[in-house]
Amino acid sequence: MARVQLEGVRKSFGRVEAIRGVDLAIGDGEFAVFVGPSGCGKSTLLRLVAGLETVSAGEIRIGEDRVTETEPAARGVAMVFQSYALYPHMDVYRNIAFGLTLARTGGEEIRARVHRVAEMLEIAELLDRKPRQLSGGQRQRVAIARAIVREPRVFLFDEPLSNLDAGLRAQTRLELARMHRRMGVTTIYVTHDQTEAMTLADRLVVLNAGRVEQEGPPIELYRRPATQFVASFLGSPRMNLLHPSALAVEGLPAGTATVGLRPEEVEIGEDGPAATVELVEELGESRIVHAVLADGSAVAIRHLPETAPEPGTAIHLTFRPEALHAFDGNGLRLGDRESR
Hints:
- By secondary structure, the protein is an alpha+beta fold.
- It folds into 2 domains: 4-232, P-loop containing nucleotide triphosphate hydrolases (Rossmann fold), CATH 3.40.50.300; 240-246 and 260-324, CATH 2.40.50.140.
- The protein is 26% helix and 31% strand.
- The protein has helices at residues 42-50, 92-102, 107-120, 136-148, 166-183, 194-200, 218-223, 228-233, 244-247; strands spanning 4-13, 16-26, 31-35, 57-62, 65-66, 77-80, 154-158, 186-191, 203-208, 211-216, 240-242, 258-261, 267-282, 287-293, 298-303, 314-318, 325-327.
- The strands form 4 sheets. It has a 6-stranded mixed beta sheet with strand order 6-7-8-3-9-10, with helices on both faces.
- Helix 2 crosses helix 3 and helix 2 (92-102) packs parallel to helix 4 (136-148).
- It is globular and about 75 Å long.
């Protein structure tokens, strides 16, 4: 296991600056998740840690070692990609053992490690099969096993579950979480999936345009987003972002340009700002009521009661004032309301 530290890391591709001065420390044994929209730089940042891309400026350290110019194979990292990248002519056993064979590890040691990892990921019965005989989920487990068997200092995952269907994603996500609890190896994981990000991460790192918008425990970022970008990116449906006049709220901090309110913090009541229901999404365990306020602003409400209002119905919104988030004209979080 090892701590990963990035200091002033930049990466340019010609005139395009993909990573713009990232400072980040990932603790020994932490599970860090990089999340953000397409093109935000999350995969590029992961590849810089792996050594698959060279930094334009800054330093990268793994443990006590400065690895900024170190070759990928000497960094002590193992990477799992979105594509399984298995050797089609090799059976599962040889695919998993390939890196150890290259490193001239002894045969008995290889067999012990491969069987131990295969049992952990429940693929022991597949060791004599070829990749073409496996399902997508099984192939991804083999790719993960190939990384684990090397016993690296750091695991790097680049959207490893994006090719799986929803059920397999949920199952494999659980297996990854269990694996991390057992092994405790420092892990960096890239995803665009918020559920993966929120459920797997010890440390969540939200990236935007090559910069870190905010990092910390997932629930902290969800409850206290530092910027309007983080507020709108985390959560499904996204946070309602409205002009203060739309909700007629008093006592906001000076300079408030936008107020935010999570859909689960809004209720349908007998008074409060008026709105008209446009659409109701039925989710089974709850429903999302989409409505329009008097000024034309859209608002989403996570609605739990058995009966939902019909489209076209006039409703009133109620919420706790302390649930509001205030942002200035630059999208930065303003101080908490006095009532909090």
